[in-house]
Amino acid sequence: MLRSDIGLYRRMLGYLRPYTALLAGGFLATLAFALLDAFSLIMLAPFLDALFKGGEVAFDKLGDKLGPFLEGTVGRFVDDDPDPKRVLLQLNLLILFIFLLKNIADFLQTYLVVRLEQSVLRDMRNRVYQHLIELDLRFFHRTRAGQIITRLTSDMEQLRQLLTKNLFKLLTSVLQVIVTVAVLLTISWRLTLVALVILPALVGMWSRLLKRLRRGDRAVMNLSAEVTSHLQETVSGVRQVKAAAGEQFEAQRFSRITWDYLKANVRTERVRALAGPMSEMVGAIGTVLLLWYGGSMVIDGRIDAAEFIVFLGLSLRMYQPAKWLSRFPSTVGPALVGAERIFEFLDTPIEMTDAPGAREFTHVTDAIRFENVGFEYNENAPVLRDITFEAPVGSVIALVGPSGAGKTTLVDLVGRFYDPTAGRVMIDDADLRSYSVKSLRRKLGIVTQETVLFHDTVRANIAYALADVTQESIERAARAANAHDFILQMPQGYETVLGERGTRLSGGQRQRIAIARAILRDPPILIFDEATSALDSESERLVQGAIEHLLQGRTVFVIAHRLSTILNADQILVLEAGRIVQRGTHDELLAEGGLYQKLYRLQYDTRVPALEGAAAES
User: How many whole angstroms separate alpha carbon 414 and alpha carbon 384?
Assistant: First the structure.
């Protein structure tokens, strides 16, 4: 076993601590099963005596300890009767009773294991999911959605089997081997040594294969996650695939991934499959040695034939759990890889944490200030440089500039989705980091171009994450967002279940639902990230009207490519390559010239500046 595995086992076993009663019950049921399983084979000895010796049952030949034990248990139920048929009937009834008890123990063990595994699985899923949604945006930007889904589904299933099913299989096998060896030793210690001679060979064989299997299992699980990721991406982007007639292209990409998955799987399973026949051959060698040596002892009169048959049955029964124990490291290989991958998630630190003594944020009384703010996702690759400006309470600040200028990153700092790597963001006279993250975000309303709606009712989507919201408040917010009328026209009105990501609605309708959500939250700070850029003129007019309801009395940041939406902004910041290159009102910036004027003319002036210059030169 690898040294790192021990730490994994300890960590995983921690999830079993809340269920010690179930664990203890499962252990007792497993122990009872192992004892009764061995006892059912021991009953062969008195049965063979009764069969071949005319009903006479002699217990003294089964060792100094086992003989008296059988005399005190089985002997009480067997009469000293000269009729061998009566003795056989009594023994058979006793054997039937032993099997009944054994199967009751087996049922209890199985039931308790299922109860335990499902409880542990629920706890682990909840723990991983809770940590996952607390992680920062940086994590989700660098991790594919399919990888996340795979770890919460197939990896979690592997880990469940290791924690419960394989754990109890391990426990059962260990107890069966211990009980069986104890019984074998009471019959003949010499034969027991011969029976156990194969165990070191089995352990040595599997230790050689373990490292190769671990590498192979990790490759298989990583490629399985790639399959899931590709499926998730193509299904969510199926419109783009079809628009580009890319069905064949995506099919070929998927075929390459599944081919790699097939090769990795076959390589790993080839090693695993080789181990089965090798184990079987080692077991066969041990059985032949036992038959030869035990048969010689019977011929020499050193052991009774009935004893040897019982011994042989017990030893053969022991080989199966012994082989499973020797294969345990490879059997649980995929589960250990799954555990490593899951704990990688759990060990990912949450960067956006509250400072000691963090305050609750309620509202802005003066202004939001950026003071020499810089930010970089990767070291030595700045996205924002020396950003300084002030957004007075109740003002509208517009951010414009080419793609990649840093506009979205800048507003992400307002919601503490990231912290500045240089400078600071202030609300009134306090650093943003002095407020608790959750209280700040609860007072933040965000409407983006890509509206996120959930597979739930219209009412639930508008009141998302808010408790004790009245229907009247929801409808008032929908009216202010110009959404109430089209909601009433839906089949169940506010109780209509929207499709996944709100696909049953048009783009304008989705945006108005999102604005109603923001209005209901009544946030003092609003962020509009290109909220109308993907809409047609009619939808934009309705959404713009809804936005006007929302702007009143709030501090607003607007990112816009359509400059018509920001003509009345109190201040426009023009960003380029992470810097503010211009600032002012719309009229001031047009008169100033520069990048803003260029962007404006590109959208609204048929005389593009480059063409004007060429005409003047001619």
Answer: 14
Name the nearest CA neighbour of 572 among 561, 554, 562, 558.
558
Residues present in the chain in total: 618
Residue type, 310: V
Q: What is the mean pLDDT of the chain?
A: 79
User: How do the domains of the chain map onto residue ranges?
Assistant: 16-346, 360-434+551-618
Q: Could you give the angle at the alpha carbon of 438 between the alpha carbons of 433 and 439, nearest 5°?
A: 80
- Choosing among 3.40.109.10, 2.60.40.10, 3.40.50.300, 3.40.367.20, the CATH entry for 360-434+551-618 is 3.40.50.300
Q: What is the pLDDT of residue 612?
A: 41
Mean pLDDT computed over 397-409: 89
For residue 438, pLDDT beyond 70: yes
Percent of the chain with pLDDT over 90: 13
Residue given tokens 């209005």 in the structure block: 519
Helix (H) or strand (E) holding 52: helix 44-52
pLDDT classification of 8: cutoffs 50, 70, 90: confident
φ and ψ of 222, to 5 deg: -65, -40
Residue 424, token pair as written in the block: 């600071």
Is the pLDDT reported for residue 236 higher than 70?
Answer: no
Residue 399: which pLDDT band, with cuts at 50, 70 and 90? very high
Q: How many CB atoms lie within 10 A of CB 245?
A: 8
The helix (run of H) or strand (run of E) holding residue 573 is strand 571-576
pLDDT digits (tens, 9 = 90+) for 486-530: 899 988 899 988 866 666 787 778 888 888 888 888 889 988 887
Tokens of 446: 């965000």
Residue 33's closest CA among 186, 182, 175?
A: 175
- 């950003």: which residue's tokens? 387
Alpha-carbon Rg for the chain, nearest whole angstrom, is: 37
CA distances from 212 to 192, 197, 207 (A): 33, 26, 10
Distance CA 451, CA 54 (A): 87
- CA distance linking residue 566 with residue 552, whole number of Å: 15
Distances (CA, A) of 222 to 132, 151, 258, 312: 19, 10, 12, 45
CA distance 533 to 544: 11
pLDDT band at 617 (very low <50, low <70, confident <90, very high): very low
* Structure token digits, residue 541: 């007019």
Task: Pick the closest to residue 462 from 439, 437, 496 (CA basis).
Answer: 496
CA distances from 514 to 239, 510, 554, 559 (A): 23, 6, 17, 16
Please name the residues in contact with 521: beta carbons below 8 A apart, sequence gap of 6 or more. Answer: 442, 445, 466
CATH number for domain 16-346, candidates 1.20.1560.10, 1.10.10.10, 2.20.25.90, 3.30.565.10: 1.20.1560.10
Measure the CA dihedral 274/276/282/284, to 10°: -130
pTM of the model: 0.66
Q: Would you give the DSSP letter of residue 162?
A: I
Q: Indicate if the pLDDT at residue 351 is higher than 50.
A: yes
Closest CA to 39 of 61, 62, 57, 58: 62
